[in-house]
Amino acid sequence: MIAITERSVEREKSNAELAESLVKQENLCLKPKLIMVFSNTKDLRRIIQLSLEEIAGWQVFVANLDSQDLTQIAVIQPDVILLDTNLPNSEELGILQKIQEYPDIQDIPIVLLTERIFSSDRRFYNSLGIVAAIAKPCDMVTLATLITNILETKLELA
Question: Do the Cβ atoms of 112 and 83 come closer than 8 Å?
Fold first, then answer.
């Protein structure tokens, strides 16, 4: 009798964990997620846009890394910003600083897509408020998984 009760408790616990996981997934899917991709490479912007829309079903906006396109962030209010850059290039550091100057978007996670990543780079990126970095070329499924993890973490913190 005790074994049956223990199994029932374990089954209920497992069902509760599954239900919690489904609620998280449902919350992630309630509103289409908006991803904003900034890159000066037109082909890369298009590849990322098509891939993330197909793989994850997100709405993906693309823009150049210039001041005029940076103003779109405040209007679109994306859930995640994907920034294609080669930090620590001083010009691109300035672009990152401009993004972070917008008061309405300070809580939007920024993911860096860059050519190289060393452990010292990760510390530098963290100091800039970048939540994650991924090296180019990257697998689009890996990129989508990284962004999904960031969105889940953001949901848990909310």
Answer: yes
Q: What is the pTM of this model?
A: 0.74
Can you say whether residue 129 is alpha, beta or left, with left for phi > 0 and alpha for psi between -120 and 50 degrees?
left
* Model pLDDT for residues 84-130, shown as the tens digit of each residue: 886 666 666 777 777 777 777 778 899 999 887 877 777 888 888 88
Q: Largest Cα–Cα distance in the chain?
A: 70
> Alpha carbon of 131 to those of 19, 47, 135, 143, 149: distances in Å?
28, 22, 14, 13, 11
Answer positive or negative: Cα dihedral of 138, 45, 74, 58.
negative
User: Is the CB of residue 84 less than 8 Å from the CB of residue 37?
Assistant: yes
Top pLDDT among 140 and 20 is at: 140
Give the DSSP H or E segment for 154: helix 140-157
